[in-house]
Amino acid sequence: RWLFNQAVCTLYAFCGVLFGLCSLTSLTVLSTVCCLKVCYPAYGRCWAALSDLYLHPSLRMPVCPRARGYGPEPYGTACCIIWKASGREATLYILALFIFCYLLPCLLILVSYSLILWTVQVSQRAIRQH
């Protein structure tokens, strides 16, 4: 069972969401920068534009569940977002979290590394022809 009070549970869950989003967002930014450097060298210095991509989900999304709250997980050993959607606002938050903080970053990572692989293959073919 959760051994601490609700304030510690909320802090624990908030930090879990924040650091999880920061981790996935960091991987997304790194893959995008690598793609820009390899595939589009002229645009390889787009750090300012990518900083907003980094700050958006990492800092804004963990604050949103204040209306819904954080609570113990079903097993009661840790705390997280209360996933049981009980209203329209809760359902929209979970949907937005899934789409903007999980699905889109994963797709961007997949597209970035696919473009890198394609660029490397095209370069290898060009080298072989010469």
UniProtKB/TrEMBL annotation:
Primary localisation category: membrane
Cellular component terms per the entry's GO annotation: membrane
Membrane-protein topology: Multi-pass membrane protein
Intracellular or extracellular location(s): Membrane
Assigned keywords, A-Z: G-protein coupled receptor, Membrane, Receptor, Transducer, Transmembrane, Transmembrane helix
MF terms (GO), sorted A to Z: G protein-coupled receptor activity
Protein's UniProt keywords contain Lyase: no
Matching SUPFAM superfamilies: Family A G protein-coupled receptor-like (SSF81321)
Residue intervals passing through the bilayer: 92-120
Highest taxon of source: Eukaryota
Protein name: OPN5 protein
